[in-house]
Design a protein that fits this description.
With 127 residues, the protein is mainly α. The chain is built from 4 helices and no strands. Helix 2 runs parallel beside helix 4.
Length: 127
């Protein structure tokens, strides 16, 4: 019986200290609004689509569009923050590769394409 009481006490003691812990520590886990650095693509807002997969596709398309503007203009200006999301959504129709509404894009391929295009831009604009 002594062992049972000791076991229960060992189990309850951490629970009481956990209950008294400051719950404000969990606020650090909250995802804050995305504020892009110097010339970084912002995350697509959740209002555009509840699916993170689709929003990631929109972000990759935004990056491709910005790189295309650099190619068109030759300007090293940051276009990532100048292209509105509604324009990205309209452009996204040209990147649909599936009839599946949950997976309309090949996001990994879009990211690679954007990475390559923006790496070329970054190299050209570094000089």
């Amino acid at each position: 019986m002594k062992h049972l009481v000791a076991s229960v006490a060992l189990f309850i003691l951490p629970l009481t200290s956990f209950a008294n812990a400051d719950s404000s520590n969990f606020s650090t886990m909250a995802v804050e609004e995305d504020t892009p650095s110097v010339c970084e693509a912002p995350r697509a807002p959740t209002i555009l689509n509840p699916s993170p997969y689709i929003r990631n596709g929109y972000r990759a398309i935004l990056r491709i569009m910005a790189a295309e503007r650099w190619i068109e203009t030759g300007s090293c200006e940051c276009y990532l923050t100048q292209i509105p999301w509604d324009e990205v959504i309209l452009e996204a129709e040209g990147y649909v590769t599936s009839d599946n509404p949950l997976l309309p894009f090949k996001v990994a391929e879009l990211r690679l394409q954007a990475d390559e295009m923006l790496a070329t831009r970054d190299a050209a604009c570094a000089n």
